[in-house]
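Hi everyone, sorry if this is the wrong subforum. Our group has a chain we'd like a structural model of before ordering constructs, and none of us has done structure prediction before. Sequence below.
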Amino acid sequence: MSENFSLKAFVVLMKASRTLEEIIKKDISSHGMRTSDFTILEALYHKGRQTIREISEAVLINTGSITYVIDKLENKGLLERSDCSEDRRVVYIQITKQGKELMDDIFPKHQKVIEEIFEDVSTEDKQVLIDVLKKIGNKWESGK
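Answer:
Right subforum, don't worry. Here is the predicted structure as tokens:
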């Protein structure tokens, strides 16, 4: 019987994904944060002011859960809300000075962990991986 490379690729991808998720969770928790807190702060840190919807789409947390996380981060002084003057239904979220200082400290360390994960993978192989994963994701995002 011939080997099913699609199934094998799927299993390897899922195992690698689980391993990477555990490494990242451990790294983020070493800074006293939860993954959801970090991903929201990271989005604001790199992209600037965002609406709740934009953050939700960027970090893949549903809008119901994200409000709870934003409330906690706001209470810690790491981000703040501001109303949109053109549309009262829209609320902007932005990182505070305290939040930026925290991310200035944490993010380079986090990036180093990610660099270590991929240190034995050539630039060419990383590009192939990016292209393949985009191809898979785009096929199913567009409704196949």
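For your construct planning: The first strand starts at residue 50 and ends at 51. Residues 106 and 135 are 32 Å apart (CA to CA).
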